[in-house]
Amino acid sequence: RGRTVTGVSPLTLVLQRAAAGLTKGKTDGTDDVRSSTGRRIWVKTAEALVKSGAVWEAAYQLAKGQTQLYLMLAAFPPSREDADAYVYLVESALRAGISPREEDERGRSALFILCEQMVNVPRETFPESTSLISSVITAGGSGAFGSSDRSGRTIFDFQQKGGPNSCLAAAKHVLLNNLS
């Protein structure tokens, strides 16, 4: 529903803009004026589109292999006031059948990109990180982990970069419990 002239849905365009770094905030959860405005707009806009009937496109991928779910997780974290809407969007995309297993041209799955983003975000910025990772893993099964990206990195390599108080450290037990 609601395609643009170029054939890309408005929902996809919103997610592309978010993932392109046009709305990057600071890792401590405080956004500068430009990004705070942009980030609030993309989450609320995407939520409004979905709640008014915009359809997630499970088969849609950019030329680089990025799905709508991937784009959304690449824009992690949302602003604090958008956390509930962000979780709703991720769970809605997963329920619609968007696979967290699909990889981009660099071999990174949606779970991989989420972990990569979470490593630099303090857990108090997004306390829902554990349940978010759990939702992605549940939807993708053990295949959500993938193997390594094209450079040989795995999601567990990020642990070395992040501190003990990162969102990824908070969710580490979920990742480990789902490996077996």
List descriptors.
180 residues, mainly alpha, 7 helices, globular
Structure commentary:
The protein is mainly alpha-helical and 180 residues long. The chain is built from seven helices and no strands.
Quick summary of this structure?
The protein has 180 residues and is mostly helical. The chain has helices spanning 10-22, 33-51, 68-74, 83-95, 110-118, 129-140, 167-177.
Helix content: 40-55%
Poorly predicted tracts of residues: 1-6, 22-39
Rg to the nearest angstrom? 15 Å
Q: Overall mean pLDDT score?
A: 78
**Helix count, DSSP H or I runs of 4 or more residues:** 7
Distance between the termini: 40 Å
Strand content: under 5%
Report the strand count: 0
Describe the main β-sheet briefly: none
State the secondary-structure class.
mainly alpha
Return the string of H and E elements.
HHHHHHH
List the topology elements.
Elements (H helix, E strand, L loop, with lengths): L9 H13 L10 H19 L16 H7 L8 H13 L14 H9 L10 H12 L26 H11 L3
